[in-house]
Amino acid sequence: MKNSRKRTPVRVGDSRFLHVGTRRIRVRVIEDRGPIGVGGRRLVRVQRLNSETEEPLAFEVPAEDLSSS
């Protein structure tokens, strides 16, 4: 069953949440990579916020995996 809530588009500079297991990680969208994923999925590059590491952690995820809450 699809989620009936309308998702807002993901834009560069947005602060979103990524669900990893039972945790929510706060990330900022730093680059829109476009529809280069499997089946044309839109990928975005994100950077983890409030990280305790000295180096910023950046990685790519499908835009549909990010939520605003």
Please explain how this structure is put together:
The chain has one domain (15-67). The model has no long low-confidence stretch (mean pLDDT 86). The chain is mainly beta and 69 residues long. The chain has strands spanning 15-20, 23-34, 43-48, 58-62, 66-67. It is globular, with a radius of gyration of 12 Å. The protein is built from no helices and five strands. The two termini are 20 Å apart. 0% of the residues lie in helices and 45% in strands. The protein has a five-stranded antiparallel sheet with strand order 4-3-2-1-5, with no helix packed on it.
SSE arrangement:
Blueprint: E1 15-20, E2 23-34, E3 43-48, E4 58-62, E5 66-67
Antiparallel strand pairs: 1-2, 1-5, 2-3, 3-4
Q: How would you summarize what this structure contains?
A:
With 69 residues, this protein is an all-beta fold. Helix content is 0%, strand content 45%. The protein contains no helices and five strands.
Number of separate structural domains: 1
Record the strand order, biggest sheet.
4-3-2-1-5
Number of helices: 0
Helix content: under 10%
Number of strands: 5
Average pLDDT level: 86
Question: What separation lies between the terminal Cα atoms?
Answer: 20 Å
Cα radius of gyration in angstroms: 12 Å
Oligomer: single chain
Which secondary-structure class do the elements indicate? Answer: mainly beta
Low-confidence stretches: none
